[in-house]
């Protein structure tokens, strides 16, 4: 934003995610900057011993890495277009589905959602040689997207797989993942965490890539998930029945939750002696350690004396043992004549849940077979999509990371059939929760008539889950409760699209007629025949407003002025926008604009005096 008292052109591109890091570095080492540029010699000296001096160092390189970094720094010129007709409960829902290439979408979301996402789960292409790896082009990212998805006759031709025979097989995949993971990290809250599904094809590279982006010290775990419940008989070598989820935290502020005990685990608690404190399990009172003060004789209820077996001692000293015995916490077996005593551990006294482990069997987290069964049931037939994950798997992640009534944002930007959205909706229903999802999915072509793209499959799945849940308790939707407490059974759809503003691309062939035509287009920078609501959303996105902002029009004298408000920011923020061709000269007075209020209008809607006046009274941006 320029100095107060000036009008500023609206920014037509997404914010630069790297700028924030550079600003932090500059804050830490102000002496190393001169004239807006870093002085590396000074920085090296300031960093002292942390700079590697020798020619050999640990590095992780692949062909195309520099281009991938350049891609990250290329701001998006695209926008997100609202699609209310494809949405459910547009006005009230906070769940989001965004159709588009996730890199462009993440760039557009960056300003509004940086540091706000609690959990990211992604299930990217595994680079099996048959799956589609998005062919980014840093020279013109949106052009690639439009070409890929425009659905002209030859659309889909570029949607090729990344064949193993391609010379840059691993490199192409790493270049695709690098900028996306980089942005993912920026979106996480300090106590947020990311889980990435992957298999043996790229797990080793992904670990190195994530070490670099998130920092090795933020590695949380590699989960081994048992995806198959039986071996594959036609496997050439071993039948691989598991894959992985790599997990990294944004910072050490992350705290995992305990998982609720399963029926099986609770089943281990019994009450054979009708103890009024309820069910309990037994734990040994010996330990594999010799401590002289804990070796003493004990007498069982039948009068038999026992001592700890050789090489062990009791877990507690004699005084503590007596306290346990007097409190009826010692158990010598149902006949009271066991060789060793046990300590009773009551269910009511143990922690409310169990510590999650890194081994997830299919009974605990579902299998691929479960995933197909549940989508078939929902779609009432085979879904034209091969690689859904079981909802149970994502629910486990939600349980470990998010809490029910937290409004936590859960992001999945390789959404596929939208298992993550289903898991959020169902777990919220089970727990009366308020988590919300943000799904991003490319309109990758399927060749299926009813669901021509995977994005269509995802949206239809969400609609079906919503209508299933709505039928199960129709009264929850009908209100009756206060609006804040109402279950969110809706979702808003946006789609990646071209900007509604003319953007200066130059006149390549120095043709005077073309130049005149281009200049003419710039007289009205808003493209012809565009939906004004979509234009307002573009302004909101580029200003860094979230997709749950509201846009409220009001008649102000001869003008229509829209107030765009984002109540999810702390403090809430808003700006005014007027797309009329002329602005009334007393508009600032009519709107009671104060110095910090932002108003956006067409440059051509102001004469010089009004522009100067407005810029003095408030913040003015022009299109
Ligand atoms: C393995 S699938 C995800 C499956 C999902 N977890 C589920 O349960 O249905 C990966 C998805 O990422 C999508 N995808 C690939 N590249 C993408 C990109 N650049 N932007 C958005 N989605 C992309 C693919 O179309 C595919 O649907």
State the gist of this model:
The chain has 623 residues and is of the alpha/beta class. The chain contains 19 helices and 27 strands. A hairpin with a 2-residue loop joins strand 2 (33-34) and strand 3.
Can you walk through the features of this model?
- This protein is of the alpha/beta class and 623 residues long.
- It folds into four domains: 7-72, no CATH class; 79-258 and 355-497, Rossmann fold (3-Layer(aba) Sandwich), CATH 3.40.50.150; 263-350, no CATH class; 512-622, no CATH class.
- It contains 19 helices and 27 strands.
- A ten-stranded mixed beta sheet has the order 4-22-5-21-20-6-7-9-8-19, with helices on both faces. A six-stranded mixed beta sheet has the order 1-27-26-25-24-23, sandwiched between helices.
- Strand 13 (298-299) and strand 14 (305-306) form a beta hairpin.
- The structure holds S-adenosylmethionine (SAM).
- The site of S-adenosylmethionine (SAM) has 19 residues, from strand 21.
How many discrete structural domains?
4
Shape: elongated
Helix-residue proportion: 25-40%
Radius of gyration: 30 Å
Can you count the helices?
19
| Beta-strand proportion | 15-25%
CATH T-level topology of the largest domain:
Rossmann fold
CATH class descriptor name of the largest domain: Alpha Beta
Walk across the major sheet and give the strand order: 4-22-5-21-20-6-7-9-8-19
Second-tier CATH architecture of the largest domain: 3-Layer(aba) Sandwich
| Biggest sheet overview | 10 strands, mixed
The chain-level mean pLDDT equals 90
Instruction: Name the hetero compounds present.
Output: S-adenosylmethionine
Outline the low-pLDDT stretches: 475-484
**How many β-strand runs?**
27
Structural class: alpha/beta
């Amino acid at each position: 934003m320029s100095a107060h008292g000036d009008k500023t052109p609206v920014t037509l591109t997404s914010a630069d995610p790297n700028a924030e890091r550079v600003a932090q570095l500059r804050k830490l080492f102000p002496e190393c900057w001169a004239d807006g540029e870093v002085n590396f010699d000074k920085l090296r000296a300031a960093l002292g011993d942390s700079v590697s001096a020798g020619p050999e160092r640990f590095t992780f390189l692949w062909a195309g890495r520099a281009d991938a970094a350049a891609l990250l720094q290329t701001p998006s010129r695209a926008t997100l277009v609202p699609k209310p007709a494809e949405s459910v409960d547009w006005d009230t829902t906070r769940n989001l589905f965004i159709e588009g290439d996730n890199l462009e979408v993440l760039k557009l979301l960056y300003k509004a959602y940086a540091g706000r996402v609690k959990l990211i789960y992604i299930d990217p292409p595994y680079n099996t040689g048959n799956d589609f790896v998005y062919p980014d082009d840093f020279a013109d990212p949106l052009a690639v997207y439009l070409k890929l998805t425009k659905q002209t006759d030859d659309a889909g031709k570029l949607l090729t797989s990344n064949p193993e025979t391609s010379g840059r097989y691993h490199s192409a995949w790493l270049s695709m993942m690098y900028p996306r993971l980089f942005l993912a990290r920026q979106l996480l809250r300090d106590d947020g965490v990311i889980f990435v599904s992957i298999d043996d094809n790229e797990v080793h590279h992904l670990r190195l890539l994530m070490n670099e982006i998130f920092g090795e010290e933020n590695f949380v775990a590699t989960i081994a998930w048992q995806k198959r419940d039986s071996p594959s008989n036609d496997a050439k070598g071993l039948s691989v029945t598991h894959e992985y989820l790599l997990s990294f935290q944004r910072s050490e502020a992350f705290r995992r939750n305990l998982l609720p005990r399963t029926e099986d685990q609770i089943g281990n608690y019994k009450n054979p002696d009708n103890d009024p404190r309820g069910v309990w399990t037994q734990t040994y009172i010996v330990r594999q350690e010799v401590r002289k003060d804990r070796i003493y004789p004990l007498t069982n209820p039948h009068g038999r004396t026992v001592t700890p077996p050789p090489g062990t001692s009791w877990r507690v000293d004699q005084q503590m043992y007596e306290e346990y015995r007097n409190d009826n916490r010692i158990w010598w077996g149902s006949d009271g004549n066991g060789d060793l005593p046990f300590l009773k551990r009551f269910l009511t006294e143990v922690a409310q849940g169990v510590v999650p482990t890194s081994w997830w069997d299919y009974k605990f987290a579902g299998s691929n077979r479960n995933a197909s069964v549940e989508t078939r049931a929902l779609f009432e037939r085979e879904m034209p999509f091969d690689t859904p994950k079981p909802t149970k798997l994502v629910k486990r992640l939600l349980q470990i990371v998010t809490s029910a009534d937290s409004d936590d944002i859960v992001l999945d930007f390789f959404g596929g059939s939208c298992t993550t959205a289903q898991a959020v909706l169902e777990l919220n229903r089970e727990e009366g929760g308020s988590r919300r999802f943000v799904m991003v999915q490319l309109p990758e072509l399927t060749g299926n008539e009813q669901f021509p793209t995977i994005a269509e499959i995802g949206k239809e799945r969400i609609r079906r889950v919503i209508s299933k849940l709505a039928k199960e308790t129709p009264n929850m939707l009908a209100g009756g409760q206060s609006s804040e407490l109402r279950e969110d059974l809706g979702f808003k759809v946006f789609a990646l699209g071209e900007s509604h503003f003319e953007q200066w691309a130059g006149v390549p062939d120095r043709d005077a007629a073309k130049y005149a035509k281009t200049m003419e287009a710039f007289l009205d920078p808003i493209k012809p025949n565009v939906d004004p609501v979509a234009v307002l959303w573009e302004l909101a996105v580029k200003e860094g407003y979230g997709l749950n902002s509201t846009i409220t029009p009001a008649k102000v004298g001869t003008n229509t002025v829209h107030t765009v408000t984002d109540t999810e920011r702390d403090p809430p923020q808003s700006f005014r926008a007027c797309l009329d061709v002329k602005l009334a000269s007393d508009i600032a007075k009519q709107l009671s604009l104060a110095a910090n209020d932002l108003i956006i209008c067409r440059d051509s809607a102001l004469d010089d005096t009004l522009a100067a006046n407005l810029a003095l009274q408030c913040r003015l941006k022009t299109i």
